[in-house]
Each structure stands twice: as structure tokens, then as C-alpha cells.
Amino acid sequence: MKHPSGVVAALLVAPTAIYARASSAEERPVEIVVRGESKIERLNDSALAVQVLDTSEAKKQSADLGELLSRASGISVRREGGLGASMRLSLNGATDDQVRVFLDGVPLEFVGYSFGVANVPVNLLDRVEVYRGVVPIRFGADALGGAINLVGDEGIDGTHAAGSYQAGSFGTQRLTLSVRTHDEPTGFFTRASAFHDRADNDYAIDVDWPNELGRPEPLRVRRFHDAYRAAGANVEAGFVKRPWARRLIARAFFTDREKELQNGLVLTLPYGDVESRQTRAGGSLRYFDVFSRAVALDVVAGHALSLTRFVNPDRCRYDWAGQCIREVTDGDPTDYLTTERTFFVRANLEWMIAPEHSLRLSAAPTTTLVAGDERAGPDPNDGDDRRLSTVVGGVEHRLTLFDDRLENLVFAKGYVQAVRANKYVGDIAVSRDRMRLLSGVGDSLRYRFTPWLLGKASYEWATRLPSLDEVFGDGLLTLANLELRPERSHNANLGLSAAFEHPAGTFRGELNGFLRDFRELILLVRSQDLSIYQNVFGARALGIEAGASWASPGELLTLTANATELEFRNSESEGTFGAFEGDRIPNRPYFMMNASARLLLRDAVVTRDELSLTWAARYVHEFFRSWESIGQRDLKEVVPAQTLHDLVLVYEVRGKAVVISNSAEIQNLMDAKAYDFFGVQKPGRAYFHKVSMRF
From the CB of residue 554, how many other CB atoms can be counted at a distance below 10 Å? Predict the structure, then answer.
């Protein structure tokens, strides 16, 4: 969707300004602001190794949650294409399931968003908490390298609603709606939200394709089988602020997703009829209360049902024009249905022993039942049943001293995982069982040297239990491995942060060093047409990240920048990868930079409005696709260095009852070629327009 450059600002400002003039007809009221420490500031100032990302500005823009995370130091979000594409999230060297993702403290897949954190609508979130290496016990998580907690709307009082609509290039449309209301006399509370996303993802890419003589030649084509659609809703109802409960809320959700698949790991062979589909539904009940002003209990329990279908008719071979160039007569069609039922509990009990001491206990049992069925095979009744049960528990002691200048959290965790698999061959079931018990410890320390300077240090002997797919395979090309061992890691962080106000503006800075010493890392090992997950090597990640920001008085101009340098190398001297000891782990970026500048004008057209122009840039240094010690350096395949620029113009006006914002955004401003995985090209220059309203 292209806007003539001469009228973009008018399109943004005019409709909103009409409403603004009507709203500001009366005399502007006098504002009295009483400011306390926000939840974001409290978390950033705690002993936890956490960075909190505010979504207030991101809600006005078209950039999705993946972009917001990519702009934070130490995080890399790589995707195989546009909206809805497969993604890989890395945090200080830890990747994929090694980093756990939650929504309000519940694993993301248990609340409907199993299609990747990057695709969660940012307009339904209040903030994002990024925990580096050391994960609080309250999440009940077996995370190896950290966790990300998405926090939704935490407001309770009054009646409020919000909505946003975004449209733009490549057939992209995104819609979000939310509403909440609270009846104070009875304490009854209800909240509902919904979203709908769709994209054609028909952007242009460059491929090598055989000509009439069968010789590959460069060709500019458009993706033709990469569409994405996702929709979902959740409803909450219950009681808040009652004598018998601070919160007692039931929640139900439903999400549905469809994704066409255009290609495999590389662009050599386009697909024309391969699709994946997923439907999730479930519910939960949450109870929170404080007893005798010293004991707090927070419990959430729920159930989630997931149906995932992978369809590959394997009837044709396609060219990049979307034409079937050859029918397949000996193909092996696939129609595989996976059914997952998950039952989970997250319970936290906190006891405030004294003002300086508190004790927390946590327990998080989870059981997932999995059944797979190949419906296109010779015997559609053959299948398998699998069960994976885990319990993650912990105890934590919090100590504050010296008038809260020092805070220390020491904790211990325990892990139990039980696996049962039944493979049916005809009417015969072959069963295999396995159980593992492990433990871990950690500590987080914060000391406030001055009112504006903080020091933090943290450590955890962390564990990640093998996931469903790793243990059981996918029922198709990935075999099961019930003997898979958990991944372990020594995680350490050391950092300083500063924040102070000066007549020249507000300054913030952060410097962190980190170590991740991974053991028994799990890797997908391929052999001809089949694959299997195995514990194959150890690796060590040593890195440093730095970030700084400055805001002028009145926030007229805000500048931010951060950079991450990562030495992530193979530390295995024996076995499959012993020959590559000391090499960088392949296909992982190791140097990244982000920068942004925001110009803000208040009362630009009418009173109580804001007009802002933001430029954001990201640089990723080139990295090898395979082990760096193999072959000649100048002949190695690399993912090239990339610098991407985004530009967004936002106009917002605050009326008495409604806040309206309009934005126009250009992503990949310079139309640079961008790659993340094995040469799969990402979208070029794209245009988006977004309207958001809050009541």
C-alpha cells in the first residue's frame, strides 16, 4: 500500500485533528501529576537479571513484537519470511526452546499463542519482561538461557476499550479489539480481547532457476504460496478486590492458524500445495489473595487442547510462476494430525517473614498427552500415543539490607520428567517409559551504590528438559529419542546500570557481561531422509552488551543505541563435533547493533496532541552458515552483513474520552536485501498504515 509522499502527513493529521478541535473546544484543564515508581522501574531496579520493554510506543506503530524484541540488546529474532513465518529467537546465545516464553506467567503455548512470540499482537500487551539466564522460580520453568514474559492488560478499575487496525504491503491486515469493565459494588470483572491477522506475503525475491538450456540463471520472482491467517479470542470473568479473594478469574481462549509453506531450508524447490494448520482452545482458573498481610497465594490451573495438521499432497513439482511443471506419480502424500492435551498448574506461595525477609515456594506440574495419526498412509489407523509429565518446583529467599540498598535472592529448583510412549503397530502396543530427576541452584544480587547507579550479579545452574518434539519426534521424518538427556548450563551475569536527570536531559546507560557454559546441547542430526535429536556437544557463550539513551528536556528529542558482541564457540573436544573445537557455532549472528532517534512535538496542531517522527536502524554482522574451520575462508557460504532502516510518522491526539493515533511506516527503507536463514530472503521495502483508539 503506497502513499504519495506529499500527502502522508496530511492523511495522518487531518482526520484526527478534526476530532481534536472538537474535544479541545473547552478550556484545557489543569493537570496535577502525582508520580510513583512504576512496575517497570521496580523490576529494572530489582535484583533480577531482567530488562523490561515498554509497549506504549510500539502499540502506535506497525512493527510487530518480533521487531520490538530485535531492538533490545542481546536478542536476535530471525524469520524465514514475512508475517506468520517460522522464527528463531536467541537470547545471549540460547535459542528456541532454551528460552521459555510466557503470557502473564503461563507458558505461551498453553494460552493459545503457539505460533511464535513474534506473531503475538503487540496491542494486547502492556510490557515485555526479558530475563537473562537466571529465571525466577515463580514461572516454574526449565529454561536453559532465560525467559520472556509477555504481560497483558493489568488494569481492573472502570470500563475501557481499545482497538487497532493495520494494513499495508504484501496483503497485510491486522486487527485487535479489547474491552474490560469492573462493577465496583459487587467486584464483578470481565475482560475480552480478539485479534485477526492475514498476509499474502507475496513479496519479490531473487532465485536461481534453470533456463531453457537447464542452466541456472538469476530470476526475480514473487512468492506465490506463503499466505498466513490467524485469529483468536479470549474471555475472562470473575471477581476482584473481594474480602475472600483479591482475584478469582476464569479464562477461556480459542485460536486458529493457517500457514502456506513456500519452500524448505533453501529456495531451490518451491512448494505449491504444502500447508500447516493449527487450532487451540482451552481455559484456566486463577486465584490470588493475601492472608494476614503476610502470606500471598497465587494459583492458576488450566487445560489446553491443540490440533495440528500438516498437509503435503505431493502431487506436483512447481516453478516460481506457480505452475505445475511436472506431476508426481510416485509421491508420498502426507496428512498428519497431532492432538495434544495439556493439563497444568502454577502455584506460588509467598510469606513475608519480616520487612527484610521473605520466602517463596513454587510448584508447576504439567502433563501433556500426545496422539499422532497419519491419515494419508496405507493404514490410517496406525498411530502412537505419548505422555510427557514434568514438575518444576523451587524455594526462594529474599533479603534486603541497608535501607533497601542491597537485595539478594537465593533459590533452589527441582526438576522431574516422566515419559511414556506407546507405538501401535496394528493392534500391538510397544511401551517405553523413562523418568529423570535433577536439581539446580542460583543467586541474584543487587546493590545500589548511589541513587542513580546500580550493580547486579547473578548466577544459575540451569536445566532445560527435552521438549515433546525432541523426545517423540514429529511422527514423520524426525524419529523419537526417549534416551535424550536434559541440557544443563552455568549462567552468570554481571552488570551496571545508571539513570539520572540533568538540566541537559535524562540519561540512561547499561553495561552487562554474561557467560553461558552449555552442556549436553540437543541438536537435530540428519541422516539421509530421517532426523533425530541427540545430545551432541557442549558450547560456551561469552559476551558483552551495552545500551544508552538520552532524552532532551520535554522529550523533544530521544536517542537510543545498543550493541551486543557474542563469542559463542564449540567447547566439545570429542565425539561428533570434536574436530570443530573452538569454532563459532554456525548459523548464529555474533555482533548486532540497534539505534533510533525520535523527534516529538507536543501541541503541534491542536492542544493535547503529539506528532512524532522515529528512525530506527539495525545492523547484523555477517556470519557463517557452517563450521568456520571447514574449507577455504573466501569460499564459505555466509549470511551477509545487513543494515535495515525503518521510518515511522505518528500523530496522536488525546480527547476527554478517546485517544486516537494514526501512523505511517516504511520498513526496510532502503530496500536492502535481508536474510536470516540459509539464504531465504526476507521482505524488501514495505509500507504500512495503522489506526489505534483507546476509550
Answer: 9
If we measure between CA atoms, which residue out of 596, 526, 520, 610 comes closest to residue 562? 596
- Ranges of beta strands (E only) in 211-318 are 216-222, 228-242, 245-261, 274-291, 295-312, 316-318
Q: Could you give the residue ranges of the DSSP H alpha helices within 485-630?
A: none
Start-to-end Cα distance in the chain: 28
pLDDT of residue 81: 84
Find all residues with CB under 8 Å of 472, minimum gap 6, and list them.
Answer: 370, 384, 386, 388, 421, 480
Mean pLDDT throughout 296-312?
94
Of 158, 170, 173, 163, the closest CA to residue 60 belongs to 163
List of residues 6+ apart from 541 with CB closer than 8 A:
92, 93, 94, 514, 515, 516, 517, 518, 566, 567, 568, 569
DSSP state of 584: B
Question: Which tens digits make up the pLDDT trace of 129-147?
Answer: 999 999 999 999 899 889 9
> Is the dihedral angle over the CA atoms 490, 367, 304, 477 positive or is it negative?
positive
What average pLDDT is seen over the chain? 88
Give a three-class secondary structure readout of 293-327.
CCEEEEEEEEEEEEEEEEEECCCEEECCCCCEEEE
C-alpha cell at 352: 513475608
pLDDT of residue 23: 45
Phi and psi, residue 285, nearest 5°: -130, 130
Cα–Cα distance for residue pair 397/352, rounded to 1 Å: 10
Domain coordinates in residue numbering, the chain: 5-38+158-694
Compute the distance between CA of residue 566 and CA of residue 581 in angstroms, rounded to an integer.
17
For residue 190, which phi and psi values (nearest 5 degrees)?
A: -145, 145
Q: How far, CA to CA in Å, does 467 sit from each of 143, 274, 359, 485, 563? A: 11, 25, 30, 11, 32
Three cell numbers at 177?
479489539
Name the superfamily (CATH) of residues 5-38+158-694.
TonB-dependent receptor, beta-barrel domain (2.40.170.20)
Average pLDDT on 591-595 reads 96
193 touches 177 (CB < 8 A): yes
pLDDT tens profile 379-426: 554 556 788 999 999 999 999 999 999 999 999 999 999 988 766 545
* This prediction's pTM: 0.89
CA 220 to CA 206: how far, in whole Å? 5
For residue 490, the cross-strand partners are 461, 517
361: cell is 515456594
Task: Examine the pLDDT at 46 and tell me if it is beyond 50.
Answer: yes
The single-letter DSSP state of residue 104 is T
d(CA 166, CA 175): 6
Nearest C-alpha neighbor of 531 from the set 478, 470, 576, 471:
478
Provide the residue count of the chain.
695
- Name the residue among 661, 658, 651 with its Cα closest to residue 599: 651
* Residue-wise pLDDT tens digits, 154-165: 888 889 999 999
Amino acid at 380: P
